[in-house]
Amino acid sequence: MRKLILILMIFQIVIVKNNLCAQTSEKFPLEMLENRDWFIKFVDADHNKRPAQGIKMENNMLISFAYFDGKRKELKAPYYISNTLDKTFVPSKIGKNKSGKYLIINDPSGFMCAKIIAVTKTEMLLHCDWTNTQLSFTTKRPD
Asked: Residue 78, CB half-sphere, CA atoms under 13 Å: how many?
């Protein structure tokens, strides 16, 4: 049952990160994104019933995680940061850019692209045109 819940939560993260976004001129440095646990800030009525979950970027891998009974479960996928809205995952771009506007992810469920809207040391906002939603993250683990 826990495995199914983890898969569903990771799928939810994946869906929200998906696809096309409008162009802006702002680029975000990779160093602001990497080596931090980015916890999803849920805003629905059931947010307190969900286990802490989110993403972390390190060593060219995007790690989706969730906590169950105090134990962290992870799934990893290669990613890169891009200045362009790529239509496919281009493995030769992994680790090449040090800043960009898009996260390009080669998830086992398929190609994904998330537009980076804003990043600070403690907050991150991504946009997904496909679902027309924004997903907020924080470095503060929810209670």
From this structure: 9
8 Å CB contact between 77 and 60:
no
DSSP letters of 47-58?
Answer: GGGSPPEEEEEE
| CA dihedral of 52, 64, 39, 6, whole degrees rounded to 10 | -20
8 A C-beta contact, residue 106 and residue 77: yes
Q: Which two tokens stand for residue 5?
A: 């819940």
Give the predicted TM-score (pTM) of the model: 0.78
- How many CB atoms neighbour CB 80 within 10 A? 24
> Using one digit for the tens of pLDDT, what is the confidence trace for 96-125?
999 999 999 998 888 889 999 999 999 999
Q: Which residues contact 80 (CB under 8 A, 6 or more apart)?
A: 60, 90, 93, 94, 95, 96, 97, 103, 104
Distances (CA, A) of 79 to 89, 105, 142: 8, 4, 26
| CA-only gyration radius of the chain, Å | 14
